[in-house]
Each structure stands twice: as structure tokens, then as C-alpha cells.
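Q: Could you predict the 3D structure of 4-hydroxybutyrate--acetyl-CoA CoA transferase?
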Amino acid sequence: MTATRYADLYMAKLTTAEKAVAGVPDGATVSLGMAIGQPPALLAALAARLRSNDLKRIRLYYKIAMEPLAKSLLAEDVIEKVDAHSFFIGGPDHEIIKRQVKTGLKLLSFVPVNFSQIPRLFEEIIALDTFVVTVSPMDGGGFFSLGTNNDFASTAARRCKRLIVEVNRNMPRVFGQSQVHVSEVAAIVENHVPLIEAGVAEPSPEGRAIGALVAPMVPNGATIQLGIGKIPSGVAMALEKHSDLGIHTELFSPAMADLVQKGVITGARKTLHPGKHVFTVAFGTTDSYAFMNDNSAFESYASSYVNDIRVIAQHDDFISVNTAIEIDLYGQVNAEFIGEHEYSGSGGQFDFVKGASLAKRGKSIIAIQSTARKGTVSSIVPKVAMVTDLRMDVEWVVTEHGAVNLRGKSTKERALALIGIADPSFRDELMSAARKVTLI
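A: Sure. Here are the predicted C-alpha cells for 4-hydroxybutyrate--acetyl-CoA CoA transferase:
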């Protein structure tokens, strides 16, 4: 096909959001791009059909709900017509869970799954009728880019019966395996609205202290994985004097973009994909999206590749830094559960905890502030509410009070080591809890 033929095909499929979703049948299983990739016009059109009873009910799968989804399929007057399934609980989901508890009416189901395994669900288990996602404008070869979102989108887009894309000129064009061809698309809509910005998290004092402890553990030339938030930002800031760091990360953040622009991250010494910044999903700002756009150093791949323990483990000097909600005296990490409810999700944390621990000279680090709720609750506890990372796999744990390596330590040694980096005001309480069950 010539470029003219691709342009003709594009125009033939270009339509309104209302017409694009008109063929979605009652009871259809629907999914959408996660986070920044959620297409606002298409979601609004689907919600309008549900509100008017033109569409009776759908089964929905998604990860990290943002405003476009919250105002459409998860809206209070729509969600009862949606059998909603979330792979990772986000802000809008918390409000839904509160309503569930208050009314006793089940509105949202959580699907426990590691990020690396979500594409497999769409390959083998979830029979997907419709997938909707925001993409970059088409290039001369007829390809759209999934931009900020490869995750499970690149798999779901090819496993669904009906792929509908929302073209947005603000979505960056990203290389790697991020392309979807116009011939694969059932319908196209255009909606050039600003992308959602995750913003730059200013490091907390505790995040800076933790960063100062983590930085010496990261050798020059290491490949890193960081999350997003006040603690990962503190770690990123502490790495500014390093050289030739590389990226193989689930999440590409503004803090990482800053290190690339400062020349700290070059990827020159990476074992795999040297010189390339590899990720599966990006949260950022207008500036970081612009920096990624048409930049051949950036490559995205499905989470089934980026988060594959076997792929991660092939990187020499791989350093994984993740945070958590709490860790117990046995070394078990909870990164997803608060009280009696799911608060976030397992995400890809375990993938990187395990993968980094298997890499040559790799280190898996759990970086966690010692207290929560303005210092009123210890983040080191006798027993966690839910296990995200198994105690056999947890290695380094860092708080603002110190760093310990649990690998090879007995249960007694683990308990004493963790109490030693807990907030001083909770240490006596933790010692008593440990003695009560003869841990020490």
C-alpha cells in the first residue's frame, strides 16, 4: 500500500465517537487503555449509550482509572450497568468501594494479577469484544503509536473483535513494539485534548533521606527500575551524580525523564537494549511527553516482556526500587491492602522484586517511610494485612532510619533488623509483639 492508500483507509474509518461505539453489543466484554491511554470521547459515548438504555450492560476490564473513566463508565449513574473489573485500584475506585461498604451493593471487582500476566489474560482467558484506546497520529506507513501505553494494550488491541482508536496529536509517538496499523482498526475518532499529567512528585524529607541511603547501593552503569511518588523522586534526585545508568522499568516517570535530560541515564552499559530507555507505561507532564515524542531512544514493549522475570534477570547490575504500604517482622511486604480493602494492587512490584534478585549483582530494594498517617502508624508491623512480596524474595529494606538486607537472615535476625530501622517511637511496641510470638 502507498501512503495515499493508507490516508484513504484512514478517512474511510474516520467517524464520530457515537458512531464508532454504536456496534458494541449488549453484554459485550470491553477493555480500554490504562491511565493516560484512556480515550475520553469514546468512553463518554459508551456511557451515553448505557445512560439511554441503548446499551443494556457491559463487562469491563481496566487498570488505573483516571478522570475520563471516572466520569463515564464508572460514574454513579452508569456503573450499575457495568460489571466492572479492575486490575489496580486507583482514586475513583476508592470512592466506589466506599459506596459498596455503605450500601452493601457490589459495584466493583478486583482481579489479583501481576502486571506481567495481564496480557496473557487477554490471550487465553478474557474473550474481548471491544478495546478502546488513545493513540498518536498515523505515520506515513499507516501506523499509530500507543505512546504512553503499551502495557496490555498492544495485546488486547490484537485479541479483540473490535479495535477503536481515539487519535490525539498530543500522544507521543514511541518506538519499540508500540505500533498499531490502520488496517487493524475498526473505527477512528479524533480528539486532540491535553493528555492527563501525573505531575512531578516533590521528594519528602523522608524520601530524600531514603534516597541518600539507596544511591550508594546503585553502581554507575546499573539498570534501574523506579516507581512514582515522593520516595522514588527522592531516590532519583540522589542519583544525579551517577553516570551511564540505564532504564528497564514498568513505569517511566518525569523523574526519570529529568535524569535522561541531565545525561545521568544513557543506557550505554545496559545488557539488553543498550542505549534504549525501555518501559511499558508512562506517566508524565506535557514536557516529558514532548521529550518522548519521536525520540528513538525510547522503546515500549508489552508488560509481558518488560515485567518478565526472565528478561529482568538478564540485566547485569539491575537495581529495583519499590515502595510499599507496610512490611512485617517476617519480611513480608504489603504494597496493596489497607484495613479490610484493596487499596491499589500488586501491579508489577513482585515481577521486579523477583527479577532483580536473580540478576547478576542485582539488588531488590523496598524503600518505605517508617511511619504513615502523619507519624501515627508504623509501616513496620507485626503481621501484614496482605502479602504482595513473599518473605523469601525480599532483600533490601530501606527506611529513613537505615538499610538492612534480609537475605539469609533467620526470622529472629530479620525481626531485630527491621525493628532497628523502624521509627524509634514504635520500637518497644514491635519488640513486645516479637517476644509475644517468640520471634526473638
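Q: Anything worth pointing out?
A: The mean pLDDT is 96.
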